[in-house]
């Protein structure tokens, strides 16, 4: 089955020689949520802008729903909804008219019931006759989301959609994302809130310095790359680790109250049994023991740092 978004060898260079995208390949399946993570300047927005036809690629191809974004631009763009980072709205236009106008730009017939549904979902119905300039920053971002949904796109790009907005909007946004996924809409999300990506994404992509470092199923990624930590809490704090316990996988908590042991969950042996025996042999008394799994943020930071290595 063809991918709904198919990016091949995509490059974007600027006149000064800077390469924002360096041969990006990206295939996205219909109905999935892909979280695209990367530090500032990694190329996330450039990639989204190029797929949406806002930025012209230096080379490579992009197809959306089988339509080439250059040779069949209108058909490809009609399938895409975009919520950009920047708020760029006509300040004197009214909310409802702004959303209706966006639908009309794609040649869609009037659908008052749909517009009302979208505005209600985003808590904008009571503001439908307000001018954009009268809205708060959070409400303006809700209007951007409504505009992106107005023509019923099959692929929705969310470029940092909840950056700097209130908790209520973030909650509403993810409820809408869940509804859209149930309807089969494909969603590509960039975010600085890694916990959100961890909560809602099916797959995770990491981009740094214009290159895709990894794209993988979220659960498989965390199982493959995630490590666990065992915290051995001590009855009496230590100033340093006893020489008999010194190891490159064992460290002392800053306040000396616990030993932190890192281990690979994929290994045949975790080494925990030996560690606990060695702790007892060193004369240390345990107060408690607990384990924790690496988060997606831990994995992301590790990948980006690897990408920065010379």
Automatic annotation (TrEMBL):
Keywords: ATP-binding, Nucleotide-binding, Transport. Transmembrane segments: none annotated. SMART domains: AAA. Residues 5-234 form the ABC transporter domain. GO terms for molecular function: ATP binding; ATP hydrolysis activity. The keyword Nucleotide-binding applies. InterPro entries: AAA+_ATPase (IPR003593), ABC_transporter-like_ATP-bd (IPR003439), ABC_transporter-like_CS (IPR017871), ABC_transporter_ATP-binding (IPR050763), P-loop_NTPase (IPR027417). It holds the Pfam family ABC_tran. SUPFAM superfamilies: P-loop containing nucleoside triphosphate hydrolases. PROSITE patterns: ABC_TRANSPORTER_1, ABC_TRANSPORTER_2. This is ABC-2 type transport system ATP-binding protein.
């Amino acid at each position: 089955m063809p991918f709904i978004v198919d990016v091949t060898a995509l490059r974007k260079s600027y006149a000064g020689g800077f390469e924002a995208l360096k041969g990006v390949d990206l295939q996205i399946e219909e109905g999935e949520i892909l979280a695209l993570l990367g530090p500032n300047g990694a190329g996330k927005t450039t990639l989204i802008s190029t797929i949406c036809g806002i930025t012209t690629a230096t080379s490579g191809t992009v197809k959306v729903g089988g339509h080439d974004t250059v040779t069949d631009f209108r058909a490809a763009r009609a399938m895409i909804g975009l919520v950009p980072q920047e708020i760029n709205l006509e300040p004197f236009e009214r909310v409802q008219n702004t959303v209706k106008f966006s639908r009309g730009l794609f040649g869609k017939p009037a659908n008052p019931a749909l517009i009302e549904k979208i505005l209600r979902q985003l808590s904008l119905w009571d503001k439908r006759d307000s001018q954009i300039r009268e809205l708060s920053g959070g409400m303006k971002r809700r209007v951007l989301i409504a505009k992106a949904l107005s023509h019923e796109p099959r692929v929705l790009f969310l470029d940092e959609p909840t950056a700097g907005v209130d908790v209520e909007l973030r909650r509403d946004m993810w409820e809408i994302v869940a509804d859209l996924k149930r309807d089969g809409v494909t969603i590509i999300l960039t975010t600085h809130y890694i916990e959100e990506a961890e909560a809602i994404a099916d797959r995770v992509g990491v981009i740094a310095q214009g290159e895709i470092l990894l794209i993988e199923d979220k659960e498989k990624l965390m199982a493959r790359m995630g490590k666990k930590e065992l915290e051995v809490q001590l009855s009496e704090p230590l100033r340093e680790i006893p020489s008999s316990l010194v190891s490159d996988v064992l460290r002392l908590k800053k306040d000396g109250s616990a030993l932190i042991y890192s281990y690979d969950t994929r290994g045949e042996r975790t080494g925990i049994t030996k560690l606990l025996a060695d702790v007892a042999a060193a004369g240390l008394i345990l107060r408690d023991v607990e384990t924790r799994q690496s988060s997606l943020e831990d994995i992301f930071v590790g990948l980006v740092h690897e990408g920065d290595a010379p």
